[in-house]
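thoughts on my protein:
***
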Amino acid sequence: MYKEPMFLAPVFKDRIWGGTKLSDRFGYDIPTNTTGECWGISAHPNGPSRIKNGPLKGKTLMEAWDQHRELFSNEKGEQFPLLVKILDANNDLSVQVHPNDEYANSHENGELGKTECWYVIDCEPESELIIGHHGKTKEEFVSMIEKGEWDKLLKKVPIQPGDFYYVPSGTIHAIGKGALILETQQSSDTTYRVYDYDRKDVTGNTRELHLEQSITVTTIPHQDARIEQVVSIEQGLTIKKLVSEQYFTVFHGLLQGTVDQKTDGKYLLYSVLNGKGVITVNQQSYPYKTGDHFVIPSTIDTYELTGNAEFIYSFTS
């Protein structure tokens, strides 16, 4: 039986708003100086991560999901449910909205919806996010879009490192310039673009907008997400539960020393934000470092974490 963590090779995406922080901060070998996204844990067909070690070395996470469901709690469903990214917003991302499962399944060839959440790894002093809108009715929402009243419509919030935001499907949102974000989301690549600052791509064309779909799927009026965060300490590990909702449960961990952990029959997704250490399973040690992404399969009952490190980990709810 498979009894070791699966370390994954990230997939990188060039974006009009990307930069070099994924290399500067995490040491990744990025393909361009406008690399906006690191898909660290992905089984999505648009960018599946490849396993770097163990019996499944060379296979994609998608192949592991399809062929070895016992590693993933024998979870049902055709698609691996989550996708973990790191986003470098060297410039403002477009204002966008994502559909829910029902709409995406019907209109996007069976794609999952996209509920997501953001942990602010770092940001510039003036960085901000767009979360929600001020339209009280659908008519008012549409009117402000048609008039281009973006400053009146969009709800902006200043951010600082360590902030966390839960972004359910149907939420108008955008990541602002200067933010470095870890995103945990449903495994979906469906985005409806509402506004893109009238900027042009490398070919001189403005990017496509999806106003009809956006108006259909946006929650009106906007509803601020309410989450309860809980902090606990286990041996050398300080854990903050960031969110626990329909699709995922996400934690922030700060490790200083050693801690024994249990999977409780779940498979766990880890992304190392800072530091280094060792995972020990059945007396076998596996080193980890800043920028690593790995899966603890559900076939592992207990494991030990040692080191000085900061990470985000999650599992399906």
In short: DSSP finds six helices and 20 strands in the chain.
